[in-house]
Specification:
about 90 residues; mainly alpha; 3 helical TM bundles of succinate and fumarate reductases; about 0% strand
Length: about 90
């Protein structure tokens, strides 16, 4: 349920920033509220992605070894992508 209000916030923010340049976005993202909500959005989105991909693997891969390996790769990949998103946000605001 967290992604519904976060996505509404994200889309609304993108619409509000339409026509702005890079510096406008940086000033907007430097707001503590926007920074925190963006980090939560990134983490929630990749967590949601990991959950969805895990269900697909569990439903369609029948070999237990491949299933465990695929789930581990999904979890690690989504964790790395989440950390990359957080680091990118930090790099923009500093």
């Amino acid at each position: 349920m967290a992604l519904v209000p976060l996505t509404i916030w994200f889309v609304g923010s993108l619409l509000a920033l339409t026509g702005g340049d890079h510096s406008t976005f940086v000033v907007w993202l430097r707001s503590p509220f926007n920074t925190v909500v963006m980090v939560v959005f990134v983490v929630a989105a990749f967590y949601h992605m990991a959950l969805g991909l895990r269900v697909v693997v569990e439903d369609y891969i029948h070999d237990a070894r491949i299933k465990i390996f695929a789930i581990a790769i999904i979890q690690i990949g989504c964790f790395i992508l989440s950390i990359t998103g957080i680091v990118s946000i930090i790099m923009v605001i500093t």
